[in-house]
Amino acid sequence: MSTALPRIAITCGEPAGIGPELTLALASQAWPAELIVFADAKLLAARARTLGQKIEIVPWTGNGSAALAARPGRLLVADLPLRAPSAPGHPDPRNSPWVLELLKRATAGCRLRQFAAMVTAPVHKAVINDAGIPFTGHTEFLAELTSAARPVMLLVAGELRVALATTHLPLHAVPAAINRVLLETTGRILDSGLRKLFGIRRPRIVVLGLNPHAGESGHLGSEEITEISPALATLQQEGIAISGPVPADTAFVDRNLANVDAVLAMYHDQGLPVLKHHGFGRAVNVTLGLPIIRTSVDHGTALDLAGTGRADAGSLREAVKLAIEMAARQRS
Predict the structure, then answer these.
(1) CB contact at 8 A, 59 and 39
(2) pTM
(3) Is 205 helix (H, G, I), strand (E, B) or coil?
(4) If you write DSSP's letter for every residue of 321-332 in order, what string do you get?
């Protein structure tokens, strides 16, 4: 196993949100990796002054030297100047291309093996769309950048892991999106990701039904019979330890999770409210199905907290920690 330290790319997200100060908070401790923040160096310096923090902002030029462990009080920054001035709490659509450029550069570095993983601070979807750029989220954007056919969103809070069959869809569009091919592909990616990135030798996955009471034998909906169960049967024949569909309202009871490594929910607000209630502020968003490692925070830009010093960096710290662990497993 390689003993070289990983180099992790971090994008600071929406400049008017809490992303810049969350990335500054990473400089409060040592890390067993080199952290490279993609941001506007002047923005970070200004936010540090606003918060009364003394942090050395060091330009990173990608000189090809070996990664060095991050040390407190110092932040390495891959500088990309903003398109327009930015004030905490007041997003400007003119900076939306800049936000996406950070993601493009970090992703390119990961694909070139310059970085072992990337960690993303939150972006503001509405502001990006206001700039005339169609954008549904990090997950879909990164999948397009990397030509990944099927990204899978997985939220992690300690031992609780919840994956999504569909992500950022309006609720009325979900039933039509649930089909055997989607579920079989998602199940395979989830199983593979749990093995490779989490080190689980034979992941145990439980799948939620789409309808109340998992369809009540077809009386409350037929998707469990026509789509979900046949997909699970195929995956079981392939040797994947997957079961269900089970009613979502009881799936998260402690005794039902006792022998489960991950839950596969059918849609965004079916599984994530439970996970965020369980671990909000320390949960991590992981994108499976990409050719790179990507983790992120479990929250949004919190414009009302930007520049106040009250933002909690716990989720970003957990995202960095998990990215480092995953990078280590891939090297072993």
Answers:
(1) no
(2) 0.94
(3) strand
(4) HHHHHHHHHHH-
Surface-to-core class of residue 150, CB atoms within 10 Å of its CB (0-12 exposed, 13-18 middle, 19+ buried):
middle
Question: If residue 249 lies in a helix (H) or strand (E), which one and from where to where?
Answer: helix 248-251
C-beta separation of 330 from 15 below 8 A:
no
| 89: nearest Cα among 296, 281, 309, 301 | 301
Peptide bond into 245 cis (omega under 30): yes
% of the chain surpassing 90 pLDDT: 90
135: tokens are 């954008």
Task: Show the domains of the chain with their CATH numbers.
Answer: 1-148+290-332 (3.40.718.10), 150-288 (3.40.718.10)
Going edge to edge, which strands form the sheet with 294-296?
56-59, 74-79, 34-39, 7-11, 117-120, 294-296, 284-288, 152-157, 160-164, 262-265, 204-208, 241-246
- Collapsed DSSP state (helix, strand, coil) of residue 169: coil
Question: Residue 90: left (phi > 0), alpha (psi -120 to 50), or beta?
Answer: beta
Bridge partners for 31 per DSSP: 70
In whole angstroms, give the CA distance from residue 186 to residue 191.
9
| 50-87 residue pLDDT tens | 999 999 999 998 867 788 888 999 999 999 999 999 99
Pairing assessment for the beta strands 241-246 and 204-208 based on DSSP bridges? parallel
> What is the rounded CA–CA span in Å between residue 295 and residue 320?
7
| Phi, psi for 279 (deg, rounded to 5) | -150, 35
CB atoms within 10 A of CB 230: 14
